[in-house]
Amino acid sequence: xxxxxxxxxxxxxxxxxxxxxxxxxxxxxxxxxxxxxxxxxxxxxxxxxxxxxxxxxxxxxxxxxxxxxxxxxxxxxxxxxxxxxxxxxxxxxxxxxxxxxxxxxxxxxxxxxxxxxxxxxxxxxxxxxxxxxxxxxxxxxxx
Length: 143
Description:
Layout: H1 4-7, E1 12-18, H2 27-40, E2 41-56, H3 58-65, E3 67-69, E4 72-76, E5 87-89, E6 92-99, H4 103-112, E7 115-123, E8 131-140
Parallel strand pairs: 1-2
Antiparallel strand pairs: 2-8, 3-4, 4-6, 5-6, 7-8
């Protein structure tokens, strides 16, 4: 997923990410994601990204979804020794499964990678839906 340009030949006018970005918990993978979107798009191509972001209403979220530490959600897993980046929380080995970066930081990453936001929608958390969601349409900037 983070190396789209290497796996697919050619360029695309449209790239869509529907709820994948927040699943990349490694900072290097996240940076590769933004670069791959730019590299995969045709000049002036468009990407639509829909992802979960922070801020998060932690109390409501943790009750149903697990532990949040440093913007990362962790879940206990069997056979933890088979996975990278596990940590011990609540006396259990847990794996990172989601990373909730602030929506404004995501916009900065997009701009840094020459992806210019044109439409941005931020849906704030509520007591029944404790996550912020970001929907953004970006266009590849060619200089």
